[in-house]
Design goal:
Order of helices and strands: HHHHHH
Distance between the termini: 35 Å
Structural class: mainly alpha
Number of strands: 0
Largest sheet: none
């Protein structure tokens, strides 16, 4: 049964077809990108597991790496204390270990990669490009800067999304009248 104009308005509100389609495409593309990234991550994890990497340890490392360094240190110290309290053999592993060191090329490549990861984190956090701690012109400096730009771009998109969401919640559009008040 066809709807009259009032019935149609009650169903779709003030959403215009062009607006809906633009958002639909944007959401689908983001989901596709997310799926592609998820598939890539899954493949990388399977390959690592196939090569003998303990993925439970990797998962724990990922959790620890998300923490601030002082928070991570406190967490690990608590872990050792708690293990001692319950006479867990885990505490014994903290002392006397001399794991093999990675080869020079591997260490150097990792250092540059880690600089990039740090730059990505700094960009996402809104730190300035000038906060790059590496020697200008070095591979680490370049990696940090390149990833900082990517992280900063992501943070700006996220900020724009928050601003648009807040403006919509207030009844206006982001940047509509510059005052954040509803546009009339």
């Amino acid at each position: 049964m066809p709807l009259d104009a009032a019935g149609l308005a009650a169903v779709i509100g003030n959403v215009k077809p062009d607006t809906f389609i633009a958002h639909w495409r944007s959401i689908r593309e983001a989901k596709d990108d997310s799926h592609d990234a998820s598939t890539t991550v899954s493949r990388a994890k399977k390959a690592a597991k196939r090569d003998g990497v303990d993925m439970d340890v990797v998962a724990l490392m990922e959790i620890l790496m998300k923490m601030e360094s002082d928070e991570r240190l406190l967490f690990l110290r608590k872990l050792m204390v708690y293990c001692q309290w319950i006479d867990s053999p885990l505490g014994a592993f903290a002392e006397g270990l001399s794991p093999p060191e990675p080869k020079g090329k591997t260490r150097d490549e990792f250092t540059v990669w880690q600089a990039g990861q740090d730059g990505l984190t700094a960009g996402r956090a809104g730190h300035t490009r000038e906060s790059n701690p590496h020697k200008p012109g070095s591979a680490a400096h370049v990696a940090w800067d390149r990833k900082w730009a990517s992280g900063f771009k992501t943070s700006q998109k996220k900020l724009a999304g928050h601003l648009a969401k807040n403006a919509a919640a207030m009844g206006g559009r982001a940047g509509g009248n510059g005052a954040g008040a509803p546009a009339h």
